[in-house]
């Protein structure tokens, strides 16, 4: 999941549920799905292959390729039709870490916890030397370091000390929080009083410009290794990218995102007049043989003469960040969606409409896999020129908020879907899934569908320790998966897909978005 | 601090406070001490030198030597008398880590978080190879591995998965908890219904015997590297020793205490039929040139003709575990005690009784530094043969429960001290120090004094994240120190020391312990 955890607008207002005929629920089929999903689950096995066996799944990395190939083969093994990798467009370079070692050697030996920033180069063998504290907030202040950084290990002063956790890392939604979500009004336009004002934007732009200058300065001066402070504590390191994945990207210096404790220790020593020496050996590999991005796609074909050209889609992104195995972001969602497909196949369900799964790539860089797929199949969100398939896709369901069980659905402003989903959630009250909120949630792939007028939904999920520990961190590993929660989610998704595929009508749509004015 | 965090008996009963004349409190001096301790503190600077600058302070390691030498010099600089290292007896070998690198290389590259167990040897250069899963619960089951382990990397099956934290790491005592402590009855004899029964002891002995057999087997078979699972999550690794520090200790195999996440990943892969290869380069150094253990000692000499031969002692252990810089265990207590001395000197206090600080070593291996000192100066707790100095030591105050501020005092069963300490705590109500509990607390150096009939006290401290994150872990760094709490503690200790040194009488004593029967 990209950027924000939740973008939800918690204003008290009711969801209007029109007094229509009760939406039908197939109780016998729900029971079958529950039996398969809760008592014969394969979701943890699937998660094992996506995480432990495949490894980190950064966009276009070998780890992502392994997971994609495994998923295609597994979908075939389960009997899905048209299982394949489908190119969505040009992404850029793959990248992976092949050696990662760094340690303080003076004033004493201490191996540090640090992760190369994504798409940064390595150190070209072992680098050793004093750490230099670089103090500069402007291009002018950088000048004093000209000619002094070649081969050096560089650290910056920072005003961000290590924080201590006085709150629990992991939590579930309380009944009160869910009730608040259910009362939310449709999302207000995003730009409002809380958005950055002109002065803040100017500061931000200045900072960004200086960062670009600094980055170029470090390259020009041939700095040997740059240390930057990672978010996170207690050995948890949140990671980011340190350079563009584009094949035309500018060179950058090697950069290690360093645990706050190790970073602050080095900084305190240097500021206290104590020399620090470091040794490091970082090797990273760029993969440039195929710059295309791919999504995993597979289907259970529809069987109803009139409806089989219509489609229900489910998905989640399969790519992750590089410091761990992206268990909660988003092997969890991928495994749940794969499991939902498996459940429907295992109970030998022959849907009226076609059911399609897609596991996206390059979500972390900007929802690229789903955007590319939507552009290729459904239309252009800028011009709102739509393709025929757009009219045939009933709904897209996404999962990408971690390992937490499903507590309900973000209606994404589609109030006409409320009575339908209300009925479909009814059989899962005992599993804690009860809440509909008219709110939007952002940051992941349902937005790509919503942008071209297709009903696209993300489920409400318990956060567990997604925001505090796992989201983009070196701790996003299989250990953080909650088995019962993933089983519950797969069961509910399978039931939603079942009902969507059999429903007399497609899921009702919001008004079409307007074309975006040319800039 | 060794072993248990707290051994306190929370039974509801009152501390009898006899209706004696009010214990005098010197309000003007308390105000001076508060001013110096709260507004002119050097405690964080002291902590910086003990942690960041000195490094890990395992018993007899170079890091401990650095900290000891710094402390002696600093005490001299502050004008203390008789500042020195004092040998307490034979300890054993020093040890430190000089290289620590380990990474999974197959099925993909991933550097792991792992710490060499204390006093284990290194790998003698880079070791690479498949990880072997060794399954054996008995000497007989080990036989199958005979001739197969030479140079191999070995892992064991374990039933301890990674745990997730649903509770906050850090907390302070609540008023209710403190009230419960205040109501505690004198400690019951330690062996009671909750202690292990004969069957549990038999199981434990069997397990210990197998571990010894296994350890010898791994050495005999020349295993290249052993992985064991560390306690802790999220990148936090709690460390232990893997071999004896004795100069006569048996050889052991190199052993890495591995973060639960990395350990479980390797284990899941192997159990899932996926080969795992590792590369590691571990170098450790034994220091055998001086097997003696030393304590740091310094004094502010008494000035009263009749009382200057009497002594008030304060202390805490300076040694730590090796994976971090032992900030909360126990640079915190050491820095507070050093700061208390500094405060008293800074306000130019000339005590009636002599004030002495001692910073112990080898506490983590069994309170050896304080036990040795007590044996050399005060008496033998086994025979209860006492030396003359025993009668001259009024009280010993210890600090070793992390960075948390002082909330009161464990009276260690010395009810006659209650009215005295009650009066001395009175000026610190506003700083949260109010509670007296008749309870014992164990695990640290005041026990060595208590064992020979000298009033020995440990302060009640807020736990913060001592038990959950820092105590013996790789995360016990300067970052975890709470500045305001350390200032508060140093101020209160200085005031207690002041009043103890000036009091008309020494602190009242409990009945002398009985000699321990020969075994």
UniProtKB/TrEMBL annotation, chains A, B:
Region forming the signal peptide: 1-21
Main location (coarse class): endoplasmic reticulum
MF term (GO), any: metallodipeptidase activity
Residues annotated as domain Peptidase M28: 296-497
Pfam families linked to this entry: Peptidase_M28
Localisation per UniProt entry: Endoplasmic reticulum; Golgi apparatus; Lysosome; Secreted
Keyword check for Kinase: no
Cellular component annotations (GO), alphabetically ordered: extracellular region; lysosome
Swiss-Prot/TrEMBL GO biological process terms: proteolysis
Record's keyword terms, sorted: Carboxypeptidase, Endoplasmic reticulum, Glycoprotein, Golgi apparatus, Hydrolase, Lysosome, Metal-binding, Metalloprotease, Protease, Secreted, Signal, Zinc, Zymogen
Subunit structure: Homodimer. The monomeric form is inactive while the homodimer is active.
Annotated protein name in UniProt: Carboxypeptidase Q
The species this protein was found in: Mucilaginibacter rubeus
């Amino acid at each position: 999941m990209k950027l924000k955890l939740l973008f939800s607008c918690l204003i008290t207002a009711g969801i209007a549920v029109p007094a229509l005929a009760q939406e039908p629920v197939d109780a016998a089929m729900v029971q079958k799905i529950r039996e398969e999903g809760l008592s014969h689950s394969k979701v943890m096995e699937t998660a094992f292959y996506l995480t432990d066996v495949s490894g980190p799944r950064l966009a276009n990395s070998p780890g992502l390729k392994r997971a994609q190939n495994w998923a295609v083969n597994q979908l075939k093994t389960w009997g899905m039709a048209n299982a394949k990798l489908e190119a969505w467009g040009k992404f850029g370079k793959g990248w992976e870490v092949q050696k990662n070692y760094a340690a303080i050697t003076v004033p004493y030996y201490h191996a540090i916890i640090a992760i190369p920033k994504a798409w940064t180069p390595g150190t070209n063998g072992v680098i050793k030397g004093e750490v230099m504290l670089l103090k500069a907030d402007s291009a002018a202040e950088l000048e004093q370091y000209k000619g002094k950084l070649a081969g050096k290990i560089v650290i910056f002063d920072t005003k961000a000390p290590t924080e201590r956790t006085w709150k629990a890392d992991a939590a579930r939604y309380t009944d009160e929080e869910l009730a608040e979500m259910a009362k939310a009004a449709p999302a207000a336009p995003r730009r409002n009083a809380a958005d950055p004002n002109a002065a803040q934007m100017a500061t931000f732009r200045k900072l960004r410009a200086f960062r670009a200058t600094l980055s170029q300065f470090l390259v020009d001066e041939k700095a040997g290794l740059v240390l930057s402070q990672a978010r996170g504590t207690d050995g948890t390191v949140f990671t980011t990218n340190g350079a563009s994945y584009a094949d035309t990207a500018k060179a950058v210096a090697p950069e290690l995102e360093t645990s706050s404790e190790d970073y602050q220790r080095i900084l305190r020593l240097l500021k206290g007049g104590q020399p620090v020496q470091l040794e490091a050996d970082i090797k990273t590999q760029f993969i440039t043989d195929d710059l295309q991005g791919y999504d995993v796609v597979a289907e259970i074909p529809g069987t109803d003469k009139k409806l089989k050209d219509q489609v229900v889609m489910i998905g989640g992104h399969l790519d992750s960040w590089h410091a761990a195995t992206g268990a909660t972001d988003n092997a969890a969602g991928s495994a749940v969606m794969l499991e939902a497909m498996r459940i429907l196949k295992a109970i030998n369900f022959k849907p009226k409409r076609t059911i399609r799964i897609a596991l996206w790539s390059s979500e972390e860089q900007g929802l690229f896999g789903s955007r590319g797929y939507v552009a290729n199949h459904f239309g252009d969100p800028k011009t709102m020129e739509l393709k025929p398939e757009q009219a045939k896709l009933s709904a897209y369901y996404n999962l990408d908020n971690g390992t937490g069980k499903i507590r309900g659905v973000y209606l994404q402003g589609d109030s006409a879907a409320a009575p339908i989903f209300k009925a479909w959630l009814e059989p899962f009250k005992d599993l804690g899934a009860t809440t509909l909120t008219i709110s939007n949630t952002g940051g992941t792939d349902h937005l790509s569908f919503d942008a071209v007028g297709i009903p696209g939904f993300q489920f409400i999920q318990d956060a567990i320790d997604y925001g505090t520990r796992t989201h983009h961190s070196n701790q996003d590993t299989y250990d953080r998966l909650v088995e019962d929660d993933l089983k519950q989610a797969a069961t509910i998704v399978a039931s939603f897909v079942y009902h969507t595929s059999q429903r007399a009508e497609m899921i009702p749509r919001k008004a079409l978005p307007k074309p975006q004015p040319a800039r």
